[in-house]
Design goal:
Its cofactor is Zn(2+). It contains 6 helices and 20 strands. By secondary structure, the chain is α+β, with helices and mostly antiparallel strands. The strands form 5 sheets. Strands 11, 12, 13, 14, 15, 19 and 20 form a 7-stranded mixed sheet that branches. It has a 5-stranded mixed sheet with strand order 2-3-9-4-5. It has a 3-stranded antiparallel sheet with strand order 6-7-8, with no helix packed on it. It starts with 9 loop residues before the first strand and ends with a strand. The model has no long low-confidence stretch (mean pLDDT 94).
């Protein structure tokens, strides 16, 4: 395929190891993360897409590939769990940053169950990845070219949700969302690394303060970690019809839906050549869409950039 404006023509990895630390949004636990560069070309043991590695387990390190087949339902985040029960949660922001910074192969090593939330956005990851630098590998850049439409929908819970992916020459997104007190919000456009970093990455996780405490208490009762690490410093916290401290971007909430969508769709293994249209997307709906796409081999193909 002809090289795309704004994208590289070769697969890439980090130029050096990235190190970050913070606390988990849901577990509240401190966690240290190292993102290790791939040391071989695609196809080698050290260059197999994005892999999460838990190093805190008693039985030794466990690898968990970013694969939609390993996704497990969790409230308010995306979780991956390997067959040996090792899991990692809240992976969506770092996955979005990696795919949109064109880091095709890396190992995300962490010493706890949850990726740190940092400031609630993808910008700290983008900045850290760019500071480390990117090196090209020998293989051509790959995209997932969408060949036919795939649609998922859910109207069972009151508000209708619908997502659709269809062929397009570039990575395009149209997301519609609404929130009581803030009205209808839409973001649409072509996604490139620069557009994502500028218009989408700064948007933060958000929620109403009056809902956070009941959700937290319910999580303790059910022994499911929910929002134990929520702070004003890592969320756009809503009280009434306003955000404490104000919004970072116009329609920040819908932009964060785009961020989460990009991170969840990154589990397909490459950026998309297709148009994603979404009405009230959620992690569950994102997962259903990427899984439906991957399951239909007539609906997509690998596309490689010409040298």
């Amino acid at each position: 395929m002809t090289p795309l404006a704004g994208w590289s023509t070769r697969q890439g990895t980090l130029a050096r190891t990235l190190e970050m630390q913070g606390h988990g949004l849901h577990t509240g636990r401190r966690v240290r993360v190292r993102i290790l560069p791939a040391t071989g070309d695609p196809g080698s043991a050290d260059a197999r897409g994005i892999v999460f590695r838990r190093i805190d387990l008693e039985g030794g390190a466990a690898d968990i590939p970013a694969d939609p087949a390993l996704r497990r339902a969790q409230p308010l985040c995306t979780m991956l769990r390997a067959s040996d029960a090792a899991g990692v949660r809240t992976v969506e922001h770092v996955l979005a940053a990696l795919v949109m910074c064109e880091i095709d192969h890396a190992v995300v090593e962490l010493d706890a169950e949850e990726v740190p939330i940092l400031d609630g956005s993808a910008t700290p990851w983008i900045d850290a990845i760019r500071a480390c630098g990117r090196i090209e590998l020998g293989s051509p850049k790959r995209f997932i070219r969408v060949l036919g439409p795939v649609k998922v929908e859910d109207g069972a819970r009151g508000a209708r949700r619908e997502m659709r992916i269809e062929p397009a020459a570039r990575y395009e997104v149209i997301v519609h969302n609404d929130l009581k007190g803030f009205g209808d919000m839409t973001w649409s456009g072509e996604l490139t690394p620069d557009v994502f970093a500028r218009e989408i990455a700064p948007s933060r996780s958000y929620g109403r303060v009056k809902w956070a405490l009941p959700a937290m208490l319910a999580g303790y009762v059910k022994r499911t970690p929910i929002l134990r690490g929520a702070r004003l410093s890592c969320t756009a916290s809503i009280v009434g019809n306003r955000v404490i401290g104000g919004m970072r971007l116009p329609d920040e909430f819908v932009r964060h839906r785009v961020l989460d969508l990009v991170g969840d769709m990154a589990m397909a293994g490459a950026p998309l050549l297709g148009r994603v249209s979404a009405l009230r997307p959620s992690h569950e709906m994102n997962h259903r869409l990427v899984s439906a796409l991957m399951a239909d081999r007539r609906a997509w193909e690998w596309a490689e950039c010409a040298a």
